[in-house]
Amino acid sequence: MKNTILVTGGAGFIGSHLVEALAKEESSTIIVFDNLSTGCLENIPSQENILFMKGNVDSEVDVAHLFRSFSFDYIYHLAAVASVSESVQQPLATHRVNMDGTIYLLEFARAQEKKVRKFVFASSAAVYGVEPTLPKTENSLIDPITPYGIDKYASEKYVTSYSNLYGLNVAVARFFNVYGPRQNPASPYSGVLSILTEVTQQVNRGEAAVFQIFGDGEQVRDFVFVEDIVQGLILLGRKVESQANTYNIASGEKHSLRDIIATYETLLDMMVPVAYNEKRPGDIKYSYASIEKIKKLGYQPKFSISQGLEKYMENI
Ligand code: UD2
């Protein structure tokens, strides 16, 4: 079927993988809407059925131009300031993107003449905050502790309210710790596996690099390979049952940082030099997801941590 699909943030780490997967359906046209603040054009495959439009989700003018130019069957809203630390330092600026940006898109989506088949919103495990009950299910206590998490949760509520108020077809995804090719290791708050990967590359080039562990390395996360995130997002887009529902997207596996370092050492046949530092303030010791709800839609993670890391290593 011929579909026009919008991916906001489509030049970024997760968005570009989604674009690549959606564009395999040759009859679909993918519109990438991105301001290239952290994403880049090289992330997007050059294909006839992928079009790029530069713009800001928090600019009414830019979003109006987008919806004047195209009429969408599906919308995947991934554009955001993804850095939690930036949201703490710049709450107003990140709020404009992470919250107002969502409302602009919802407003134009509901006003569009053609009915949107699904508006999928990318939220985060950050909405659960530090409350310790595990695993996190979609009904776990919500208690975000940063502007980033608060804006993600408020956006989730906006998205589902547009289903109640205007009959917009919507679904919400909560990502756990995503990793994979094209994740940028530049900031100390980048995904830990992008930093660890960079350190192993530096060591292999003979450079003096040390991976800094914050805390004792026994912190546990649910690391999910980016292609499994894409699988989950596409399911939420396609399945009618996801209507007005919220889903964790994760691997359902839990690993400590020390286990992961050992997996790198086996895969790369090397020793990773590490140094131990004070744990980060506010760091959560254990975080992992229940994925039972999204499994009912047919989701099945395809990558164990070692399979995901192997594919990651092959693609950097
Ligand atoms: C993740 C998300 C964040 C938010 C949060 C909600 C990422 C990149 N971040 O933060 O956006 O949703 O979950 O709970 O997905 N670490 C090291 N050395 C390093 C970097 C990190 O030891 O060089 C530790 C860090 O202290 C933490 C763990 O590794 O214990 C994972 O860190 P992270 O920044 O990848 O992700 P997290 O879970 O803090």
TrEMBL record:
Source domain of life: Bacteria
Species the sequence originates in: Listeria rocourtiae
InterPro entries: NAD(P)-bd_dom (IPR016040), NAD(P)-bd_dom_sf (IPR036291)
A Pfam family that the UniProt record links to this protein: GDP_Man_Dehyd
PANTHER family (UniProt xref): DTDP-D-GLUCOSE 4,6-DEHYDRATASE-RELATED (PTHR43000)
Domain NAD(P)-binding, residue spans: 6-311
Protein name according to UniProt: UDP-glucose 4-epimerase
